[in-house]
Structure formats: structure tokens, C-alpha cells
Amino acid sequence: MIAANRVVLTPSLKVLQSDKIRFEPALPDWKMTAIHRLKMSNAIKVILVFKERFWPEGMWDVVCTDSFIPEFWMTTYPTTDHSQHLRGLCAVVCFIAGEKAERLSASMPPEEMVARSLQQLDDLFATAACRAPATRALHSSHVADWAKEEYVMGAYSFPSHGAEAGDRQALAAPLDGTVFFAGEATHPAINPCMQAAMESGLRAAGEVLAAARPAGSRL
């Protein structure tokens, strides 16, 4: 058991909406209303690592709105003293979000997602010399399905029907100077992204420091 005078909570919105965290006393109605009016959806990233780059140099992003994979992000691994084993490797992140990610999470096994992603890349970058450049160059793969992560349960919060102005601020509001909330869903402006999560953490840290400051202190 850990005891503390103050705590910063950073669970995802889906975790707050579930029964994974028990609050005693229960969270006030105004905060629970905000938690349940906001929504969070899924995202899937099919991460493909390749032994060589087969796309044009300088290409970082491809959008295919009506295809199996709506968006690809390309990168090469920066090599450091601690990552010599990655030298020469390239990666493509195949990004699926929203309702499509929800459907695929429930209906398609990861190995099929990998196969479909490779096929789409083969179709995009086939040449007369090689009709399946992605399949030929594949080194390894991994599927990150955020809805299936037990302590995350989803990817991003989003503006949703029924939500009201001020819901994110209500979610972020501390309770009695002891319980503080952070995470991308608490940011009123730039959710959903890592930047929002980072900024919300700085905001919550400032609130903790202010609450811990002795009354009348000028520090």
C-alpha cells in the first residue's frame, strides 16, 4: 500500500469510464458527467520493419483514404551506440483509427492485418523489377491494438455528440487539493496527442505545487 498527501491520476478516459479504479468517496457527479460525456475511440498501428527502403527518398507520409490502410508513416532508424543492431533498417507505421479500428479489432487477427498492409504497400510501390518490394524486404512486424491494452483500452479522446463546452476542464479539475488529473483527454485545446498529455502533466504538477505551498507563502 502506498500513502500520499496528494496524487496525480493519468488514466485514459476509457479506464476512468470503467470500474478499474475505485474511488472512496466516489467522484462527484459533475466530474462523472464529464467523464461519460466525453468519448474515446481505438487506433491500430501495424508496424513493419524492413531490411531496406523501397519508397522514394524523402517520402514520409502517404494518405490512402479509401484503402485498407488510410495512412502510412515512413522512417529510418537513427543509429546510436546502443542501436547498432538497427543499422540500415527502415520502418513503416500503418495507421488505422476510429470506427474502422474498432471493427478490425473485433474481427481481424493481427497476422491478417500485417498481410493486408504488406499487400497495399506492394501495390503502391511495385516496379517492373520487383512486384512485391514490401514483402521481399520485410524484417519483422508488430501490431499495436490500443483497445486491447488492459490499462489503456483505447487511443484518443475526441469531440463527440452530447459533449459540452467545459467537459474537459471539469475532467481536469482537482478535488480538494489532493487528487489531480492529467492526460490528453484533460487538455481543452490540442487533444488528442502526446503534446496534450505532456502539457497536462505540467499543468497538474503546477497545481500540486500550488496546493502544497504553505498559506501566505510568497514562494
UniProtKB/TrEMBL annotation:
- Renumbered to this chain, the signal peptide range is none
Annotated Amine oxidase domain ranges read 4-209
A molecular function GO annotation: oxidoreductase activity
Under SUPFAM superfamilies, the record lists:
FAD-linked reductases, C-terminal domain, FAD/NAD(P)-binding domain
Q: Which family does it belong to?
A: Belongs to the flavin monoamine oxidase family.
Per its record, how is this protein called by name?
Amine oxidase domain-containing protein
Question: What organism, scientifically named, is this protein from?
Answer: Tetraselmis chuii
